[in-house]
Amino acid sequence: MNSFKKIEEFGNRTAVYAERNYSYFEMVEIADAICREVGERTLVFCLCSNNKESLFGYVGFIRGGVVPVLLDASIHIDRLRRLINLYKPTYIWARSDNQDLLKSMDRSFVFGDYTLFKRRTPFQHNLHEHLALLLTTSGSTGSPKFVRLSYENIFKNAESIARYLDINADDKPITTLPMNYSYGLSIINSHLICGATIIVTDASIMTKDFWELCRGQRATTFGGVPFVYEMLDRLNFEEFNLPSLKKLTQAGGKLSPMLSRKFSEVCNRKGIQFFTMYGQTEATARMTYLPYDKSLEKAGSIGIAIPGGKLILQDDNGNKITAPNVIGELIYIGENVSLGYAESLFDLSKKDENNGILRTGDMAYFDQDGYFFITGRIKRMIKVYGNRISLDEVEGLLNEHGYDCICAGTDDHLYIYTLKDDSVQIKKIIKEKLNLKGFKVMKIEEIPRNHFGKILYSKLPNMNQLQSPEPVTGNLIYATKL
Amino acid sequence: MMKNIEKYRNAFIAVLDLEEDDVSEDLALGVTREWDSIGHMTLISEMEDVFDVSIDSEWITEFNSYMSGIEILKRLGVDFD
């Protein structure tokens, strides 16, 4: 199942607005030309910004059975080189002025500001027949781990989303999230299969350009992670006059109860449907949604399973929880559950390892009406502006650079503990490699451990109480594009 | 007494975690790597605190470069001379 193969049926309808209108017919023509140049089922890297070049490249690769890895165009060159070594992409679709690629690869096809760069030494990839797409998981920790997605994953999820959001050809989403981020990509997929028009912009919602475009092109919808809603709140969204806006979606982390209530009320007053959703890249994008007419009554809930999906809770002994208000691990079952992970090109031939079942690592309960609420996380993960960061991976990265550190924290607050006087160097690495800033580094006398040597993270000094907390600010996967 | 232009400059250094030498009149939202949306929110709050002004939403979206920020603050009565 590859629904992009049918989108030329939308013909002269506008597929994309990017400085001008591009019809579905025109988009498909360009997309297929990019893919035709690749000419075989192989692996390509697509360095994405929210522009027509990235989008058309993606559409072409999916249509033509070429497997793209969607990466942020602002990816650090060291990380890109590492990924090239691990995955040996045959082509890289990137900005034509990319100096590093100009030196190391041959140029072939050009469209707009992008060039298809060709690998100099051919490599034969062994790709599983269902493999369609690879997305990064924990955005900025520099991990080479990708989520393997099939054509069925992408389009089953897109169809389900289109159904519960009632997407139709008259919808006009404007981009607020990067297309290489699963949530941003799901907005594109679910609208393209419905013949809708995507307003593509790299402008931040903090700029006048964005709002002029939103108004001028009469956008009907956009999505946002919690930070987007914090920005909208700061911009006095309630006073905005955007009559075309009909639907707002929120995912990528839990909105504060105050903002959740506020946006439910404001949207209700303005006649905007406000949907809270929950998902992970490991499930393509979305797993649950809270219907807009329940947004106030069930504020704070992630809602119910998307059409075609199922949610269950499991207790510590692996038994299914059937009573309301009992906390257990949230497990999702559906056709959008990814095939598994890849850590190098040798994993690209692997078959489906999840079989439609995803252990989310989140703890949750459901209420008497069957609405789910997340209470915490099992894994050592924090969300920094909607992006999952593995504390173990940050520790691993620092370790690679010769720093023995312990990482802890809560959502939007990353704390790094060290035994030496190396805070300055640690800060520099985190800033350069992860593009994070505003996190805290603290020197401690010893690492608290139990008798078995296990680190007692709860016994680490709480940096929040030591000084006024400064939120972690990061140039993360989506934050760069807001 | 620190001059306003120095306070302005220091706000960029502190909020965006820039080096002294990185600060120039070319800084721009979305162009300067450190000046992303998250940095922007913090920068606006910092300017409001430092200069004791309130920057409304329209001006937040116009505050997109080092130079336009000075213009906006001037309009709010901050003296840069």
Which spans of chain A have pLDDT < 50 for at least 5 consecutive residues? 466-482
> What ranges of chain B have pLDDT less than 50 throughout 5 or more consecutive residues?
none
Question: How many strands of chain B?
Answer: 0
Helix share bin of chain B: 40-55%
Summarize the amount of helix of chain A as a percent range: 25-40%
Secondary structure: number of strands of chain A: 27
Q: Helix/strand/pairing class of chain B, anyone? A: mainly alpha
What is the general shape of chain B?
A: globular
Largest sheet of chain A: 8 strands, mixed
Let me know the average pLDDT of chain B.
90
CA radius of gyration of chain B: 11 Å
| CATH architecture descriptor text of the domain at 150-333 and 352-377 in chain A | 3-Layer(aba) Sandwich
Distance separating the two termini of chain B: 14 Å
Give the SSE map.
The complex is a heterodimer of chains A (482) and B (81).
Chain A: E1 14-18, E2 20-23, H1 24-38, E3 43-48, H2 52-64, E4 67-72, H3 77-87, E5 91-95, H4 99-104, E6 106-111, E7 114-118, E8 131-136, E9 146-150, H5 151-164, H6 182-192, E10 198-199, H7 208-216, E11 221-224, H8 226-234, E12 247-250, H9 257-270, E13 273-279, E14 286-290, E15 304-305, E16 310-314, E17 328-333, E18 340-342, E19 357-366, E20 372-377, E21 381-384, E22 387-390, H10 391-400, E23 405-410, E24 413-418, H11 423-434, E25 436-437, E26 440-443, H12 463-466, E27 473-474
Parallel strand pairs in A: 1-10, 3-4, 3-5, 4-8, 11-12, 12-13, 24-26
Antiparallel strand pairs in A: 1-2, 5-7, 6-7, 8-9, 9-18, 13-14, 14-15, 16-17, 17-19, 19-20, 21-22, 23-24, 25-27
Helix pairs in contact in A: 1-2, 5-6
Chain B: H1 4-16, H2 37-51, H3 57-62, H4 66-75
Helix pairs in contact in B: 1-2
Pfam family, one (chain A): AMP-binding
Domain AMP-dependent synthetase/ligase (chain A): 6-341
InterPro entries (chain A): AMP-binding_CS (IPR020845), AMP-dep_synth/lig_dom (IPR000873), ANL_N_sf (IPR042099), ATP-dep_AMP-bd_enzyme (IPR050237)
